[in-house]
């Protein structure tokens, strides 16, 4: 009976699993990854923590207020006059301090403002990294699907050629060599199909891992109008990277923080001035000759001045340390600028090369198709042998696979170029999204 009750649920689950997975666009999978990806979520949490840490630095410029309370109970005994009477007191005090002149605190507050800029640069870098990771996994799946499709098409063509060779051998118009060559090619294509199918499974798992769902990417709409590089010169890309790249922005903020740290060290020799105030209430209770019941209220306001005179050369050595660290940050910024410029140039020329390869593969595909048609015709009239047809088929499908991969590489190259110079945004994958099947 329990089995019968569970049968409808089992059938429902089986039906859901049997339904085809709806194809998803690149933007849809990117949005899923923003919610699911652990690395990106970690970066968002770090962003919130860094901003909050920066806000803490403002405390050195704001007043501090404290409330304190005391309760005491005293018992005094004396053998002289048989005195035995407890008494006590209670007190409440409110104290406040307002910094008036603390140059070190001013520098620390400025450092806090820089923390927000640093946090945004770090989050931008994480967002760009997520875009590239999702897009790479997306196009890896499409490339693996194309490879499997072409291998299966080649398998079908080889099977037809094998059957033709067997028929010709049976009627005596072909040798056993043709049959064996076709059989060898068929076995090789079968092995390639198994490898391509496994590669597709692995690529799908990688995409599922970053998006958190069973993804089914929408294919590229053909013929695809691949985007060109704008601007078409590399120098504008490099110039822009010096201002907007997240790593450059982080290095620049690190230098500014280091300069402020030097100011804090220099402030170690400077005086400080605070405005202080307090208000306290004390109540004493007692009724003997030693104590009596009374209450006191005390209010004070004043200035607190402090001038460092000598601290065992700690201030001087701290200043030397911060100056050296400031020079290190300046060198780190220069290194970041050079690395970003080099990466941008490399990515730019990579996209240019990719566009050229796509055009070359498109021409090669047309030539390979013409060569295959001519070879088949030659085989039918007896001027070509079976292995010529098989080789022409292999060349055609290999060219098709390389052409498909080259298209995906160009699209990824555009994204990586924008990541290299720091301008990559969600709108860039929206533009690629328009090239996919609807």
Instruction: Kindly state the number of beta strands.
Output: 4
Number of helical regions: 10
Helical content band: 55-70%
| CATH C-level label of the largest domain | Mainly Alpha
| Average predicted confidence as pLDDT | 88
The CATH superfamily of the largest domain is Outer membrane efflux proteins (OEP)
Shape: elongated
Q: What integer value in Å does the Rg equal?
A: 39 Å
Which regions are unreliable across 5 or more consecutive residues at pLDDT < 50? 1-19
Category by helix and strand content: alpha+beta
Biggest beta-sheet profile: 4 strands, antiparallel
**CATH fold assignment of the largest domain:** Outer membrane efflux proteins (OEP)
Order of helices and strands: HHHEEHHHHEEHHH
Task: Give the neighbour order of strands across the main sheet.
Answer: 1-2-3-4
- CATH architectural designation of the largest domain: Up-down Bundle
* Number of separate domains: 2
Termini separation (Å)?
A: 48 Å
Beta percentage is 5-15%
């Amino acid at each position: 009976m329990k089995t019968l009750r569970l049968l409808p649920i089992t059938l429902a689950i089986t039906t859901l699993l049997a339904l085809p997975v709806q194809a998803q666009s690149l933007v849809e999978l990117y949005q899923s990854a923003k919610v699911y990806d652990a690395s990106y979520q970690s970066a968002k949490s770090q962003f919130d923590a860094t901003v909050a840490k920066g806000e803490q630095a403002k405390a050195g410029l704001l007043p501090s207020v404290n409330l304190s309370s005391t309760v005491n109970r005293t018992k005094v005994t004396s053998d002289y006059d048989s005195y035995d009477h407890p008494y006590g007191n209670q007190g409440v005090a409110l104290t406040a301090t307002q910094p008036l002149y603390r140059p070190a605190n001013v520098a620390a507050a400025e450092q806090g403002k820089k923390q927000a800029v640093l946090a945004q640069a770090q989050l931008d870098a994480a967002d760009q990294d997520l875009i590239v990771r999702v897009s790479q996994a997306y196009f890896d799946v499409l490339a693996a699907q194309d490879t499997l499709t072409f291998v299966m098409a080649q398998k079908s063509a080889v099977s037809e050629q094998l059957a033709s060779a067997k028929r010709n051998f049976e009627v005596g118009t072909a040798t056993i060599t043709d049959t064996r060559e076709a059989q060898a090619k068929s076995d090789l294509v079968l092995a390639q199909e198994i490898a391509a199918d496994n590669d597709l499974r692995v690529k799908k798992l990688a995409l599922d891992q970053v998006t958190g769902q069973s993804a089914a990417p929408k294919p590229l709409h053909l013929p695809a109008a691949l985007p060109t590089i704008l601007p078409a010169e590399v120098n504008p890309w490099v110039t822009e990277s010096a201002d907007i790249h997240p790593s450059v922005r982080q290095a620049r903020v690190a230098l500014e923080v280091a300069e402020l740290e030097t100011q804090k060290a220099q402030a170690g020799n400077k005086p400080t001035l605070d405005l202080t105030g307090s208000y306290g209430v004390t109540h004493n209770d007692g009724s003997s000759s030693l104590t009596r019941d009374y209450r006191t209220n005390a209010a004070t306001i004043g200035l607190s001045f402090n001038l460092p005179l000598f601290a065992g050369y700690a201030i001087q050595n701290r200043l030397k340390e911060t100056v050296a660290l400031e020079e290190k940050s300046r060198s780190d910024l220069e290194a970041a600028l050079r690395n970003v410029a080099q990466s941008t140039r490399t990515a730019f020329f990579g996209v240019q090369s990719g566009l050229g390869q796509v055009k070359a593969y498109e021409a090669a595909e047309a030539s390979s198709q013409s060569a295959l048609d001519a070879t088949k015709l030659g085989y039918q009239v007896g001027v070509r042998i079976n292995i010529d047809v098989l080789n022409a088929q292999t060349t055609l499908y290999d060219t098709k696979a390389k052409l498909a991969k080259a298209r995906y590489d160009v699209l990824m190259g555009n994204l990586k170029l924008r990541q290299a110079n720091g301008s990559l945004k969600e709108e860039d994958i929206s533009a690629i999204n328009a090239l996919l099947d609807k």
